[in-house]
Amino acid sequence: MRIISRYLLRQHLAPLAFALTALTSLMLLNQVAKQFTNLVGKGLPWSVIGEVFLLSIPFIVAMTLPMAVLVAVLYTFSHLAADNEITVMKASGISVARLVLPVLGGALAVSFLAFIWSDQLLPRSNHSLRTLLVDIQRMKPSFILREQVINEVQSQRFFLRASRIDPSSNELRGVSIWDLEDPDRRRVIRADSGRMAYTPGGTDLYLTLYDGEIQEVSRDQPAQFSRTFFQTNVIRIEGVGREWERTEADTYRSDREMSVCQMERTVRQARADLVSARAAAETAVTRELHGLAGLPPPVPAAAESLPLGAPSRLCRVWSWIGNLVLPDTLQAQTLGRLKTDSGPRPVFERAVPRARPTVLSGAGGALPEEARIRAARQRAAAYLVEIHKKLAIAAACLVFTLVGIPVALRFPRGGIGLVIGVSLGVFTIYYVGLIGGEELGDRLIVTPFVSMWVPNLVFSAVGLLGLWSLRREGWSARGGGWAELRDLFRPPRRRRRA
Known about the structure:
With about 500 residues, the protein is α+β, with helices and mostly antiparallel strands. The chain has 10 helices and 8 strands. About 25% of the residues are buried.
């Protein structure tokens, strides 16, 4: 039996590697096609351009890994069924459950690796990629020129308009330039065509213009008008960009740049803010009622700290693993080592001070506190949705395995068309549901758990129903017509009558 388990798992390795490589390459090529024209021609080192695309791979892999699992399961089981290997195994007394269990165990292991990937590596790569793209945008803001628009190359001094701009060759057509640098002279330069180029340092812009004219008027002599024709004119514009500088430390992180434990800490802080806002709203209402009844205002409560609560078991496990694997970087900065009792290390969390309620007047005095309550709920929901999203996408590897096995065994003669068709259908439905659920969860319409786990639950039910239908006696893997699809979900009694 161990030989069969190893054989089934080994049959999945090559399709999984091929599907993961192919899907990742296609999505990476799409990313390169979108970003290449915005990066090339700005004087950036090729290593920086390569780093941008390299940092895009972790996000792509996190999305394509569940897809690759489904493709591998569909291809492997349909191939085994078409070659009658499944029939031989069943004739030898091996049940469908015995064939499915090792594959489900492998899918569970892939789900665990996918979660580690999205929780530990993906936030770091997203943070580095965002920081790098911000540095690139700050490097040469004047390079982003739009056609048919007057672009401000230098603030209040130099303006440029071009009817056509070719980003790949930096060629310009129908160029008009307004030079306002000299306060005593105004110049308008027009040219039939031109070309842009940056200096090696990236701080100056050279414009080489062809077949044009320069119109010049002096404020001291407004009656005189100068007009000069040229075939080639080179203009140097200084200080339009800055040299490449990399941001070394960026403390800001969005929800997609945080691990589960970091987002969980933010959720606990948002919930503490929610408790504080509700207490302040109750105090404000009490003050209003006392004022309407002519009673003295209540004595304000002393400010106190609200504990953020203990971290989850998952975060405690990650902290324990980090203490074992990672070096203690703070030992060299402390005067001595703290001695604690045996047992788990204490976790120190920053307490959130309870805000002292302010004196509000009017019948709607609690409205600002209601806004605080809703803002705290939305902040907590947004991070909870992202936490469940990481878990749901990782669990999709196991869910897609449940869906792929019965489909592949029921239609073994589907071939590559079955693999591509079913994969595209499942991917589209799953990710549309995921995106729609995320929107509903962020708007507080549904809970974060429901918003992210409904697609997994639906596909899991479909997969389990399909596996249950394969366990009936007399089933074989010699079918494969698309007309049998309706029999997959029909009750056994109606199936026998038909």
